[in-house]
Amino acid sequence: MSTIMQQYIDEAEKALLHTYNRYQVVFERGDGVYLYDLEGKRYLDFVSGIAVFALGYHNREYDDALKAQIDKITHTSNYYYNVPAIEAAKKLKEISGMDRVFFTNSGAEAVEGAIKTARKYAYLKDGGTDHEIIAMNHSFHGRTMGALSVTGNPHYREAFEPMIGNIRFAQLNDFDSVLAQVTDKTCAILFETVQGEGGIYPATEDFLRKVRKFCDERDILMILDEIQCGMGRTGTMFAWQRFGVKPDVMTTAKALGCGVPVGAFLMTEKVGAHSLVAGDHGTTYGGNPLACAAVCKVIELFEKQRILDNVNAVSAYLSDHLERLVEEFDCVKTHRGVGLLQGLVFDQPVGDIIAKAMEKGLVLVNAGSDVIRFVPSLVITQENVDTMITILRESIREASPLSTRERFTEGERK
Ligand SMILES: *Cc1c(COP(=O)(O)O)cnc(C)c1O
Questions:
Q1: pLDDT per residue over 300-355, tens digit each?
Q2: 239 near 233, Cβ under 8 Å?
Q3: pTM of structure
Q4: Domains and CATH numbers, the chain
């Protein structure tokens, strides 16, 4: 490694709080599906800032839109209207079919808003302040206290107890386990349409339909977290649209701004009319003109560049090739996922494989200790998939040499 890169890393370790185990690399710029480090080394990126850069790096039209907005104004206040926020809300309504939008600065903040919406909705119905939310085991909803409280991973929560109260956990795709947690205080059922951090587990159509029906019968809110799986990643703008099972409240972030920090929670008119009102919720930066100019351009470019078509074409190709790795390697147990949100499940921790791939110029990320997650930019090509698979195959061989099925023929070859 160059001394300059090492110097920056050393300085980082002195100045930044040690909350991340970072790879020993400093990225300087991006172009399309490639990242470049300080030494100018090029990496094929199958992480895209963790499902953020849907349009790839350095999209000219996107960059120009942001620059133009910077020259006008980047922040006013939510005490006033601004055109980019109005346009972005209109576009978000169109692509989601939801009716009301609240812009946030992050995913976790969108989840916080969704939780407050559910509590307020229930409060207006019966005046109670002890309502319960059912969330799922292995879920991930963010690191702020409310979002953490509905995150179904005790390891993330333990040191920070007590959480916000009245959260119960069920098992994704096990409707009976949800029913077992229902009480007359239940005000919402919350889950990711495809669990991301928890290991790439898609909700089944059957589960979505049962939850939807049950929520309708009881006037309970169905909240879907689409922060990672939304914005085209699974081949429809939002993952629930594949099944036409519409939530009452939905969260989005990550690829929504393609690199500018922005999120949103959205709701139907019914929920909007019976939940948060003036004074209930707010944010200084949420919905600022710069972030919203990004949202407008992102949604516009999704249509113009036919992003969904590319996702559907390339993801089938990616699935196919990941499936071959399952057959080829003993250490690869299975593969699961939807669209360009795929996971390869190993029988061992994947850290070494990811590190090997990094050396070879391929950026990958895990989801849990034994799953490699594929969340590339949505503009990747079949050729990019070929390159990725070649490097991944080499990396698996080198990191766990005894794991290929070839080992059974080792003797014959000698
Ligand atoms: C990343 C993520 C969040 C949190 O978003 P931040 O912007 O990191 O706060 C919440 N839910 C899901 C499903 C996510 O993937």
A1: 999 999 999 999 999 999 999 999 999 999 999 999 999 999 999 999 999 999 99
A2: yes
A3: 0.96
A4: 3-55+306-413 (3.90.1150.10), 60-304 (3.40.640.10)
